[in-house]
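Supplementary Methods S3. Complex input for the zinc ion-bound model.
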Amino acid sequence: MRNTLLLLLSLLPVYGHADKLIEQALPEIIEFRHVVHANPELSNREAETAKRIAERLKKLGLDVQTGIAHHGVVGLLRGSKAGPVVAVRADMDGLPVTEQSDLSFHSTVTDTYGGKRVGVAHACGHDIHMSVALGTATVLAAMRDELAGTVKFIFQPAEEGVPPGEKGGAPMMIEEGVLTKPVPEAIFGIHSWPDYAVGQVELTSGPAMASSDRILIDLHGRQSHGAWPHLGVDPIVLAAQVILGLQTIPSRTIDAREPAVVTVGIVRGGQRFNIIPDTVHLEGTVRAFSDAVQDQVERRIGEILAGLTSAAGATYDYTYERQNPFLNNDPALAARARATLIRTLGAENVLDGKPAMVAEDFAWFAREIPGYYFRLGVVAPGTVSGGLHTPSFRADDSAIEPGIRAMTALVLDYLQQR
Ligand SMILES: [Zn+2]
Ligand SMILES: [Zn+2]
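Predicted complex, serialized as structure tokens:
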């Protein structure tokens, strides 16, 4: 305890300095936010956003690498003193959503997505994440002389998933060596969260976000007249059995103490009211907080399909696509981060949360090295925000300052208390 106290006292001038630097950096960072918010780009199309980031990182004197996993940017900040390497990650892509917010800098950008013309918006708050990372880089670059270690700022494209047939996102950045030369020993990330007020954060230790997989099923029967079902093999009745059968996986197969979700989101089949079609197509998603549960669900879907289609005299095609693993917050890192965030934002603003069933590709980084990912409140007093990925999602500018304060403190604590 005494050691911790002495350490804290020795750090006080550093933190005081950081607060002043944040204040100075803020106007430029908010201006950056307005520009990227008004000019969002879809996954794997973040060329202009990347240019803007690289330009600013270069101006700060960081070693900048571009073109990683298409439009990824990395800025390396080497402190004057020796110390560990730690990483900060921010995602860069917008979504095919038409923004409906009262922000003066709201997006009017359109692009082509899935063959259609769509509005594009930062409806997942990635503009806030980039602003917080850039703000943290600005503050720490000004403290280079006192900095004991190296900070790797990773700006990652395509968090929301890549267009069909393309590669990208966190796994591709890792493949291209983003966690080498130098190897960070920990990585931090945030996500804007519209359930919380500006200044609040929500923390979890251990599993934080679920794995996300995609299932694709085709049920092949035999077409017949709707009045003569005995002459055909009805894939629609079979689809109904399969959908209900899949619901027994979380309820009857998986240990009740392990969360799992199986959702069928697409059921497609049939041309006419009085024809039994030959095929029904199903698509869905599987969520879990354990690799073993993922394996179990994948296997059980196959068994249920084999059993039900055999009983019906039908056949099937089944694909189980692994998309993201579950995101695990390293418990030791989480405990340290919690203490840092309580000191920085006040205990009343640090909320203990629950894991969320939505996914996040930060999970890939946190599989390679200890990772810590937390949620940042973005709703200012007197404003309202819709949910993530909706047209009315609204992150307030004022969320950036506590975000930078939190991230700067996490990095400084990590470097100094290692
Ligand atoms: Zn999102
Ligand atoms: Zn997001």
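The first strand starts at residue 63 and ends at 68. The pocket of zinc ion (ligand 2) is lined by residues 124, 126, 159, 191 (CB under 6 Å).
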